[in-house]
Amino acid sequence: MLILGIDTSCDDTSAAVVEDGFRILSNIVSGQEEIHAKYGGIVPELASRQHIEMIAPVVDEALKTAGVTLDDLGAVAVCFAPGLIGSLLVGCSFAKALAYARNIPLVAVNHLEGHLLSPFLQSPQPEFPFLSLIVSGGHTSLYAAEDFGRYTELGRTRDDAAGEAYDKVSKMLGCGYPGGPIIDLLAAGGNPVAIDFPRAYLPESLDFSFSGLKTAVLNYIRSRGPRANGERRLPELPEPMMADIAASFQKAVVDVLIRKTQWAVEQKGIKRVALAGGVAANRGLRKRMQEMGDEHGVQVFVPPVSLCTDNAAMIAAAGYHRALKKEFSGPDLNPRAHLPLG
User: Fold this and answer.
1) What angle do CA 152, 81, 307 make, to 5 degrees?
2) Within its chain, how far is the Cα of 71 from the centroid?
3) pTM over 0.90
4) Among residues 31, 25, 26, which one has the least CA distance to residue 13?
5) Which residues touch 312 (CB under 8 Å, ≥6 apart)?
6) CA atoms within 13 A on the CB side of 333
7) From-to residues of CATH 3.30.420.40 in the chain
8) 179: helix, coil or strand?
9) What is the C-alpha separation between 209 and 160, in angstroms, rounded?
10) Which distant-in-sequence residues (6+ apart) come within 8 Å of 181 by Cβ?
11) Are 115 and 314 within 8 A, CB to CB?
12) Mind giving me the DSSP string for 59-104?
């Protein structure tokens, strides 16, 4: 079965064709980093307008690259939640119109399920049950996956997502957007134990919290700046100090993510862990997760970087399993900005 996947949940316009839920025939992504970089973050109105401009050519390119036509499709899978509501509206409207006009079944996919199932687009694939740590700009969550469509949330962030904290720390350092790759690169040249930033382990649960860490970084940077009207200004820091801040911040984030995942392994007795989401592209996190797996006898599954960030291949993969169960949607499908998985 060939599935056309469409994802416009945030600022990337993506379309992909996936065969039988695991073989990628095409995966086209049109990014918007240049548009939003000048604002230091995503501007929802600009994102949705760019989706309107790019959705048709991106879908055409996905079909052309895969060497298929609309007549070959078994279903159209579209991300309908969670995400920026204006962006989601573009993808959902396009997918509904396409499915209706060509009489193709329509499948609604939760963006988080797409991330959770992204490891199935590589080899080897995880076996059920497995634990999934989804870390991105909008989400930081731990799930137990028992089967396709059967997921239990074990923990989530109580405030900032890890990726959001990366973006904000990058902005504090004057390094721009998106912050994840910038901080990761800076951290490679810094000392991760130079600054003892706090870690909110919240030992009573598997939840996460990164707002305190973000504030601690801000206070540290301000403490190095001159006073103006009784307040500290954000200073221009020398590059070695910026590298140390980035490395120490990243270590604090990764320490919490790894510790929580290890606790989940111990509590659930599940020796398989999948890492997903945009922050899963972070080299420090990937390395530490594999080290945790080697130390505790846990199989670790990490998708390639191209499948960690938002993409339509993961939406098509998740849509395939819903299509097998005949879980189809109609023209009344509406996007939702917030929708927990499971």
Assistant:
1) 80
2) 31
3) yes
4) 31
5) 5, 6, 7, 14, 15, 16, 27, 28, 29, 62, 79
6) 28
7) 2-117+307-324, 127-302
8) helix
9) 7
10) 281
11) yes
12) HHHHHHHHT--GGG-SEEEEEEESS-HHHHHHHHHHHHHHHHHHT-
Q: Which two tokens stand for residue 198?
A: 């706090």
Which pair of tokens denotes residue 188? 């490679």
Task: Answer for the pair 88, 58: CB distance below 8 angstroms, yes or no.
Answer: no
132: Cβ contacts below 8 Å, ≥ 6 apart: 115, 116, 142, 143, 144, 145, 151, 273, 274, 275, 276
User: In whole numbers, what is the pLDDT of the chain averaged over residues?
Assistant: 94
Residue 244 has pLDDT above 80, yes or no: yes
Residue 103 has pLDDT above 60, yes or no: yes
CATH topology of domain 2-117+307-324: Nucleotidyltransferase; domain 5 (3.30.420)
- For every residue of 115-152, DSSP letters joined together read HHHGGGGSSSPPPSSEEEEEE-SS-EEEEEEEETTEEE
Q: Which CATH superfamily is domain 127-302 in?
A: ATPase, nucleotide binding domain (3.30.420.40)
Q: What residues have CB less than 8 Å from 237, skipping those under 6 apart?
A: 173, 221, 224, 245
**Which residue, among 171, 124, 70, 133, has the nearest Cα to 259 in the 3D structure?**
133
Q: What gap in Å lies between CA 283 and CA 286, rounded to an integer?
A: 5
Query: Which band of pLDDT confidence, cut at 50, 70 and 90, is reported for residue 342?
Result: confident
